[in-house]
Amino acid sequence: MAVSFHTEECTFLPQGRRRITAWIKEVITAEGYSPGDIAYIFCSPEYHIGINRQYLGHDYHTDVITFDYSDLNGTRNISGDIFIDPYTVRSNAETIGTQPQEEMMRVIIHGVLHLCGHGDKTPEEERAMRALEDRSLAAYRQANGDYPPFVLPAR
Questions:
Q1: What is the mean pLDDT of each run of 10 residues along the chain (155 residues)?
Q2: CA–CA–CA angle 69, 133, 75 (5° rounding)
Q3: What is the C-alpha to C-alpha distance for residues 100 and 118, in angstroms, rounded to an integer?
Q4: Domain chopping of the chain, boundaries
Q5: Where does Zn(2+) bind (predicted)?
Q6: Would you say 110 is a known binding-site residue?
Q7: 124 burial via Cβ count (<10 Å: 0-12, 13-18, 19+)
Q8: Any binding-site annotation on 120?
């Protein structure tokens, strides 16, 4: 299993990637699956909205897009590409009144939970997803203390 971190049109990469990777693996295992290859791609808002337009038909900014290559019924391996716009993550954190490092960790695990088969299209799914995110974030904090700093370079 390989969790990898990349950039496209931005220089942001989360700090503490080894601890984050271990946490991601723990969440996947707790969900009853095996970790496969997961690529996190941190990208500019322009790059991210391009993906939204091209592949999802959305003409608006989002913080995370997940492309799922998992085999949940056969090998039960979780694999996929998770595109994150850290600038939108920061903006969303300001809007909802949370710390950007917490919001980044929430978005990171949100993509993994999608790979584990969890949706967020209905109000019920949204509530269930938020509960899973909260549980995962609490597990990270219990094992590691504070979240890694969120250091976003100027644009």
A1: 93 96 97 96 96 91 94 90 97 96 98 96 96 98 95 77
A2: 30
A3: 24
A4: 2-144
A5: 110, 114, 120
A6: yes
A7: exposed
A8: yes
